[in-house]
Every structure is written in structure tokens, then in C-alpha cells.
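TL;DR need C-alpha cells for one chain.
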Amino acid sequence: MHVPPALIVLDAARALLPDVPHAACFDTVFHAGLPAAAREYAVPVTWREEYGLRRYGFHGLSYAWALDQASALLGRRSEQLQAVIAHLGGGCSACAVRDGRSVDTTMGLTPLEGLVMSHRSGSVDPGALTWLQTRHHLSPHEIEDALNHKSGLLGLSGTSDDTRELVRSRAAGDERAALALDVFTHHCRRGIAAMAASLDRLDALVFTGEIGEDQPEVREEVCAQLTSLGLAGGLLMPTTGWPDIISAQGAAIPVVVVPTGETQQVDRETRALLRTR
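>> reply
TL;DR here they are.
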């Protein structure tokens, strides 16, 4: 989804600046070392070996930045931290980080898998999709367009894919807005709990992304109902700005908010690459 337009820009830049080094920083690199159990789909070997069907994961630049920022805030080295990071924005995913490495994530071959998103569906029973094709004669293009652009919070509410608007609408009595937020936070909790299952312990929960940073209602509704993981509600607002620890003092599991730093991570990785040339 993102690579083709990025390649167009890269080709144009290389044509205009042929003597300048160019770097590509991929969102999938952070997940390159996923264990086989987290990487492989349970599908025929031909699909996996000949077609390359596997789970890649995304939001890697965001996760790398959030991990470093959260580790510094908690006074830990990233290699010592076992955490779940939730990137909640237009696209949403969660990642399990053990000792500085991604060991599981909710997105797969494409950014459609996993959590409910702004206007992407997240995971849907694949049998439902073949049913739509065979019973209701929807084309692959119609299904792909609906799942990517007309689903998620937008599809559930019928009005908006913006959690800020949905929180206001819910307060005014809009039942579909309430449903959209309930489904969204339910899938966030389920994804976070699934990621925690890939860790030996949970040292922290980190929120990043536009929703993760700006929507306290979502953070509260996610954490208040994850008591089985040692999390709790009653989250705080930052005292000195982001990043900050927002869990109550003495909380069993610290909850951290880190502003999205994908641009800064691209800068960091590009400079590191140029230093090796």
C-alpha cells in the first residue's frame, strides 16, 4: 500500500540528485526477526514457499522510536524491557517486544490484519469474505475497497473515523458511535492481551500514534478492563508533556505515552546508515 508511491518519490529524488546517497527505511524491518511461530500462516506449503505468504508486520519505525523513548523514561535499557506497544492512529496495531526485539505483532502480510482501525476493518473471518464473493457476488476489488476504506470506526459508526468526534457523539447519545468505540477498544484489549502472551512478563504498556497520544478516553477504557494483565484505570494526564508515565503511582504495570516519532526514526536510521559508508 505504501511502498509504490514511496518508490515513485525515491526514483524522482534519485533522478534529481544522482550524486546524493538515498536511503529507504522500511516499516517491516523491526519485525524481520519474528519467530517462525509468529511469522507463519497455517496455509499450504506452496502458498508459503512459492508465493511468499507470511506475516511481515508494520509500524516498525514507530515501534523502534517508542521503545527507545519509553525505555529511557522508565530508566531501563531497551534490551532489558518486555513491553507491549500499541500504535493507535489511522492504522492500528500492537507489538510484543522482548529484550529489544519484536517477537509478535497484530498486522500480517498487509496492514489489514489485526485491530479495528479508522477505516480499515482489521481481522475478518476469511470464510466471510469467500461467502461475500460466492453468495453475494462481490468482486475482489469491491471487497478490498470496502475493507480498506469503508470499514473500521467509519463503517461501525456510519458517520466518522475520528475517535474525538465519536467520543462527543457518544456523550450526546449516539448509539452507533458508542458501538464503534466499544468494538474498537475491545479489539485493542484483545490485541494487547494476545501480544502479552508472547512475553515472559509485562514490564510496561506503551501507547503511541495519534489516538494513543490524544485520546484519553480510549486509553482509559483499554486499561481499566485489562486487570487480568495487572493494568488498571485511573490514568493520569501528563505533568510535563509527552512522553510521560500516565499510570497511577505504585501501579503494578506502568503505562507510558510516547508521541509518534516515525520521522525522527527515519532520520536516525538514515544517519546511522550513512556513517557506515
